[in-house]
Amino acid sequence: MPVSFKVASYNIHKGVGTDRKRDPARILRVLQEVDADIVCLQEADLRFGTRASVLPRFLIESHTDYVPVPLDVQHDSMGWHGNAILAKAGIAVESHDIIHIPCLEPRGVVTATLGVGGASISVFGMHLDLSGLWRVRQARAIAALADAARACCPVALMGDLNEWRANSGCFREFAKHFTVLDPGPSFHSRRPVGRLDRIMHCGGLSVQDCGVHRSALAAAASDHLPVWAQFTAG
C-alpha cells in the first residue's frame, strides 16, 4: 500500500520576524498552517551563548503535535549548527545522526530515518554555505552520503541551499543522484524572488505536488517562507 506524506523546509531566522520581533509561538503557528508530517528547520538555535533552541521543547509540545528528533548534541539545543528535524507525534524515529561537512562558516547536516505509515524514510536537513565553492563541496559530500542511504530506504533532502543561480555547481552535484524540486521563490518573505529553499528526492519517492507556503503570518514570522512537498512512497 503506497504511503503519502508531506515534508517541509523552513529557515526560521532564529525566530526573528520581519518586524524584528523574536516570536517562537508565531513560528509554531506557521508550522500548523503548513501541516507537514516532517519538517526540517534551519537557524533553529541561537547563534551565541549556549546556542539554546529558539523553539523551547515545552512550547513545541504544548502548541503543536510535533516532536523534535533527539540529536543528542547539547543541553537546551535541539539542533546541530541550527539544523533540526520535527516529526508529527506517532512517527517513529528509527535512527538519527549529525554529519560534519567541509565548511568555511559553521555548518552541519542533520539526518534521521523515520517510520511513516509503515514505510521508512531517510531525511537530510541542511543549510549550505554562502560561498559557492564551499556549497559545491558540501553538496558533493551530502549527496554521496544520501545516495548510500537510499540502499536502505527512500531519501528526501531539504534545506536552505543559499543558491541564487538556477544551474549552479551545487544543484549539479545533487542532480547526479536526486531530483531537485523547485517549489518557487521563498526569500525574502515580504517579496520573494530567491529560490533558496529546496527539496530533493530519490527515485523511491513520487512527488505529488510542491510549493511555497504563503500567508500573512508566514510573511511576518521569518525572512524565509516555508517550502513543502507531498510525496508517495511504495
List keywords for this structure.
234 residues; alpha+beta; six-stranded mixed β-sheet; 21% helix
The computed structural class is alpha+beta
Strand order of the largest sheet: 3-4-2-1-12-11
- Rg, rounded, reads 16 Å
Give the number of helices.
Answer: 5
Element string (H = helix, E = strand): EHEHEEEEEHEHEEEHE
**Portion in helices:** 10-25%
Main sheet: strands, sense, barrel: 6 strands, mixed
Overall strand count:
12
Overall morphology: globular
Strand percent estimate? 25-35%
The averaged pLDDT comes out at 93
Layout of helices and strands:
Layout: E1 3-11, H1 24-34, E2 38-42, H2 57-63, E3 66-68, E4 84-88, E5 92-100, E6 108-116, E7 119-127, H3 132-149, E8 155-160, H4 169-175, E9 179-181, E10 197-201, E11 205-212, H5 216-221, E12 227-233
Parallel strand pairs: 1-2, 7-8
Antiparallel strand pairs: 1-12, 2-4, 3-4, 5-6, 6-7, 8-10, 9-10, 11-12
Descriptive overview:
The chain is an alpha+beta fold. Helix content is 21%, strand content 33%. The chain has helices spanning 24-34, 57-63, 132-149, 169-175, 216-221, and strands spanning 3-11, 38-42, 66-68, 84-88, 92-100, 108-116, 119-127, 155-160, 179-181, 197-201, 205-212, 227-233. The chain has a six-stranded mixed beta sheet, covered by helices on one side. A hairpin with a 2-residue loop joins strand 6 (108-116) and strand 7. Helix 3 runs parallel beside helix 4 (169-175). The chain is globular. The model has no long low-confidence stretch (mean pLDDT 93).
